[in-house]
Amino acid sequence: MTGPSSPNSIGAILGRVTTIDVPCRDCGSPVSRPAQLSGRPDSWRDAVRCPAHAAAAGVDAASARAASVRDRDSQTWIDTVRAFDAVAGYELASVDEIDSTKTSTICRRLIDTHTAADPNTGHRGGVALIGPTGIGKTRALFAVVNALAPGRRALVGSEDTVLAVDVPPWELAAAITARITGVEVLGIDDVGVSLRRPDERMLAWKALADVVARAPHPVTVVLTTNLQGWTALTDWVGAQAASRLSGWTPLASPGWTDRRTGRTHEQWRQDLLAAQRPEERNR
Q: Which long-range contacts does 87-96 make (Cβ < 8 Å, 24+ apart)?
């Protein structure tokens, strides 16, 4: 029979992650904790307590273990973001940085709604961040995704990465279905630059929208694009995908000032207002 401190029982509790023994900060006895990735900060070790001393300190052992798993999930997500771009610092992106008060409010509501959603319901949410290059669209995307991704299945990439540009057309729908199924947080950067032929691109977007629509769990979709509104986006992703995506992803912009040059894109602002539906303008 498996004992309470055996590797098998610890593995079951922690989802079969690799564990290591860390000394209790109070007595030095070994405590099993999820192993961190090589080269990552290990200051968390200083806070580890054995069950007896955790109880004496008023810390529930299960809660401490869950916190350790959350820390591991957060570090894994940071590594994922750095793989997307190692120098941009997107792993630090926060909704507080978004220039537009209206858009930051939309993003906060999006995060809160997904967090509060019943995991067994088909909640759909999202935002399409539009505007010219340099205004912080990608950083705003990561501001939303960073808040939701740790502990959830997330996928973030360029349009061609998400739409499986490396897959032949006859396998495309199946590949998209396999790639998107189970994803709870989906970020697609720079929509409008895919190298696929228009018919293949629209097939891929339709397959993506179908998978998101069928998901039995909450899904949040965040897009960035230089395309001006849902008319242009519909021409790009196809009418079937656009009819679904536009219902989940209102148009918004993180701001109108190019962060590199300081230039304000007033015409883009006017174009967004013209492209938005009345209910989007009033959000």
A: 88/138, 88/139, 90/138, 90/139, 90/142, 90/146, 91/142, 91/146, 93/139, 93/140, 93/142, 93/143, 93/146, 94/143, 94/146, 95/140, 95/143, 95/144, 95/147
